[in-house]
Amino acid sequence: WIAALNAEGSWIIISADRRIKKNKAEQQAFKSSKLVGFFLSSGLQKSKLTKQMERLMALWETIEKQADLVSGGAMFEIPMKSTKLKQI
């Protein structure tokens, strides 16, 4: 999926799939792509969907600004409580 989206152009990914952080091949593919990723923290990933959506909406402007500031291959964690994104 990383190669397919990369071929299409600059995408911003929001995902709860944190395996990319642990799978070295996927992580390398992502870091060498034009994609920018925002991944739910483990606590947020385990939360109800309404809580996840609440956090995304609360941080939406921050996510948009961060995506504009970085180049492809950047990955960030969306926190459960904080308003600061953590770079992965």
Question: Which residue ranges are poorly predicted, with pLDDT under 50 across at least 5 consecutive positions?
Answer: none
Helix and strand sequence: HEHHEHHEE
Major β-sheet annotation = 4 strands, mixed
- Count every helix, treating DSSP H or I runs of 4 or more residues as helices: 5
Sheet/helix structural class: alpha/beta
**What portion of residues is helical?**
40-55%
**Over all CA atoms, what is the radius of gyration?**
13 Å
N- to C-terminal distance: 20 Å
Strands across the major sheet, in which order? 1-2-3-4
Taken as a percent bin, the fraction of beta residues is 15-25%
Please give the number of β-strands: 4
Envelope shape:
globular
Residue-averaged pLDDT: 90
Structural overview:
With 88 residues, the chain is α/β, with parallel strands linked by helices. The chain is 50% helix and 17% strand. The protein has five helices and four strands. It has a four-stranded mixed beta sheet. A hairpin with a 7-residue loop joins strand 3 (75-78) and strand 4 (86-87). The model has no long low-confidence stretch (mean pLDDT 90).
How is the topology of this model organized?
Layout lengths: L1 H7 L3 E4 L3 H4 L1 H8 L4 E5 L1 H4 L3 H21 L5 E4 L7 E2 L1
Parallel strand pairs: 1-2, 2-3
Antiparallel strand pairs: 3-4
Features:
88 residues, alpha/beta, four-stranded mixed sheet, 5 helices, 50% helix, 17% strand, globular
Q: Could you provide a short overview of the structure?
A:
Helix content is 50%, strand content 17%.
